[in-house]
Design a protein that fits this description.
By secondary structure, the protein is mainly α. The relative contact order is 0.11. The protein contains seven helices and no strands. Helix content is about 65%, strand content about 0%. Helix 1 crosses helix 3. The N and C termini lie far apart (about 35 Å).
Length: about 130
Protein backbone atom coordinates (compact mmCIF):
# COMPACT_ATOMS: atom_id res chain seq x y z
CA UNK A 1 0.00 0.00 0.00
CA UNK A 2 1.54 3.20 -1.17
CA UNK A 3 0.98 6.87 -0.58
CA UNK A 4 -0.97 7.06 -3.86
CA UNK A 5 -3.82 4.87 -2.68
CA UNK A 6 -6.83 7.15 -2.40
CA UNK A 7 -9.64 4.65 -2.59
CA UNK A 8 -9.91 0.89 -2.46
CA UNK A 9 -7.87 -0.80 -5.18
CA UNK A 10 -9.87 -1.69 -8.28
CA UNK A 11 -7.74 -3.17 -11.07
CA UNK A 12 -10.13 -2.19 -13.88
CA UNK A 13 -10.31 1.41 -12.63
CA UNK A 14 -6.54 1.71 -12.26
CA UNK A 15 -5.95 0.19 -15.72
CA UNK A 16 -8.41 2.65 -17.25
CA UNK A 17 -6.77 5.55 -15.41
CA UNK A 18 -3.34 4.45 -16.66
CA UNK A 19 -4.66 4.21 -20.23
CA UNK A 20 -6.07 7.72 -19.90
CA UNK A 21 -2.76 9.19 -18.73
CA UNK A 22 -0.74 7.26 -21.31
CA UNK A 23 -3.02 8.64 -24.02
CA UNK A 24 -2.47 12.13 -22.59
CA UNK A 25 1.23 11.47 -22.89
CA UNK A 26 0.86 10.51 -26.56
CA UNK A 27 -1.23 13.59 -27.31
CA UNK A 28 1.37 15.76 -25.58
CA UNK A 29 4.10 14.09 -27.67
CA UNK A 30 2.21 14.82 -30.91
CA UNK A 31 1.69 18.44 -29.89
CA UNK A 32 5.38 18.77 -28.98
CA UNK A 33 6.21 17.15 -32.33
CA UNK A 34 4.30 19.92 -34.12
CA UNK A 35 6.40 22.53 -32.33
CA UNK A 36 9.63 20.65 -33.05
CA UNK A 37 8.74 20.58 -36.76
CA UNK A 38 8.04 24.32 -36.68
CA UNK A 39 11.36 25.03 -34.94
CA UNK A 40 13.33 22.80 -37.30
CA UNK A 41 11.82 24.58 -40.31
CA UNK A 42 12.79 28.01 -38.97
CA UNK A 43 16.13 27.49 -37.22
CA UNK A 44 19.59 27.03 -38.68
CA UNK A 45 21.12 23.63 -37.91
CA UNK A 46 23.26 24.93 -35.03
CA UNK A 47 20.36 26.80 -33.48
CA UNK A 48 18.08 23.77 -33.95
CA UNK A 49 20.56 21.59 -32.06
CA UNK A 50 20.77 24.27 -29.36
CA UNK A 51 16.98 24.22 -29.03
CA UNK A 52 17.05 20.45 -28.54
CA UNK A 53 19.74 20.83 -25.88
CA UNK A 54 17.64 23.44 -24.05
CA UNK A 55 14.68 21.05 -24.22
CA UNK A 56 16.91 18.15 -23.09
CA UNK A 57 15.81 16.05 -26.08
CA UNK A 58 18.18 13.81 -28.00
CA UNK A 59 18.08 14.45 -31.77
CA UNK A 60 16.99 10.84 -32.42
CA UNK A 61 14.04 11.22 -30.03
CA UNK A 62 13.08 14.54 -31.64
CA UNK A 63 13.14 12.83 -35.06
CA UNK A 64 10.85 10.05 -33.80
CA UNK A 65 8.45 12.58 -32.28
CA UNK A 66 8.30 14.57 -35.50
CA UNK A 67 7.79 11.43 -37.60
CA UNK A 68 5.01 10.28 -35.27
CA UNK A 69 3.33 13.68 -35.57
CA UNK A 70 3.46 13.56 -39.36
CA UNK A 71 2.13 9.99 -39.39
CA UNK A 72 -0.59 10.17 -36.69
CA UNK A 73 -1.81 13.76 -36.68
CA UNK A 74 -3.75 13.47 -39.93
CA UNK A 75 -7.49 13.11 -40.56
CA UNK A 76 -6.88 9.53 -41.75
CA UNK A 77 -5.03 8.41 -38.61
CA UNK A 78 -6.43 10.69 -35.88
CA UNK A 79 -8.39 7.74 -34.45
CA UNK A 80 -5.09 6.07 -33.55
CA UNK A 81 -3.58 9.07 -31.75
CA UNK A 82 -5.09 7.95 -28.43
CA UNK A 83 -2.65 5.04 -28.26
CA UNK A 84 0.35 5.36 -25.94
CA UNK A 85 3.61 6.70 -27.39
CA UNK A 86 5.29 3.30 -27.36
CA UNK A 87 2.53 1.81 -29.52
CA UNK A 88 2.56 4.76 -31.89
CA UNK A 89 6.29 4.26 -32.34
CA UNK A 90 5.69 0.56 -33.08
CA UNK A 91 3.00 1.39 -35.63
CA UNK A 92 5.15 3.98 -37.42
CA UNK A 93 6.60 1.22 -39.60
CA UNK A 94 3.19 0.65 -41.21
CA UNK A 95 2.41 2.40 -44.45
CA UNK A 96 -0.22 5.12 -44.57
CA UNK A 97 -2.84 2.90 -46.25
CA UNK A 98 -2.54 0.26 -43.50
CA UNK A 99 -2.85 2.93 -40.82
CA UNK A 100 -5.90 4.42 -42.53
CA UNK A 101 -7.47 0.95 -42.74
CA UNK A 102 -6.81 0.37 -39.03
CA UNK A 103 -8.17 3.80 -38.06
CA UNK A 104 -11.35 3.10 -40.06
CA UNK A 105 -12.05 -0.14 -38.18
CA UNK A 106 -10.12 -2.60 -40.31
CA UNK A 107 -7.24 -4.83 -39.35
CA UNK A 108 -3.50 -4.85 -39.77
CA UNK A 109 -1.58 -8.11 -39.37
CA UNK A 110 -4.87 -9.63 -38.22
CA UNK A 111 -5.27 -7.13 -35.36
CA UNK A 112 -8.05 -4.60 -34.84
CA UNK A 113 -7.53 -1.25 -33.16
CA UNK A 114 -9.22 -2.62 -30.00
CA UNK A 115 -6.85 -5.59 -29.93
CA UNK A 116 -3.86 -3.31 -30.39
CA UNK A 117 -5.21 -1.15 -27.59
CA UNK A 118 -5.29 -4.14 -25.23
CA UNK A 119 -1.81 -5.43 -26.08
CA UNK A 120 1.31 -4.13 -24.38
CA UNK A 121 3.83 -2.62 -26.78
CA UNK A 122 6.02 -5.69 -26.26
CA UNK A 123 3.13 -7.97 -27.21
CA UNK A 124 2.46 -5.75 -30.22
CA UNK A 125 6.09 -6.02 -31.29
CA UNK A 126 6.02 -9.81 -30.80
CA UNK A 127 2.90 -10.07 -33.00
CA UNK A 128 4.94 -8.57 -35.78
CA UNK A 129 2.38 -5.91 -36.65
CA UNK A 130 4.97 -3.23 -36.95
Amino acid sequence: KGEFEITAYDRARVLNECKFFLAQSAQAMLEAGKRLILMKEHEDHGEWMGCLERLNIEPRIAQMMMKATIKFDTPNTKALSHLPKSKLFELMALDDEDLKELAEGGTVAGLTQDEIDRLTWRELRAKGSA
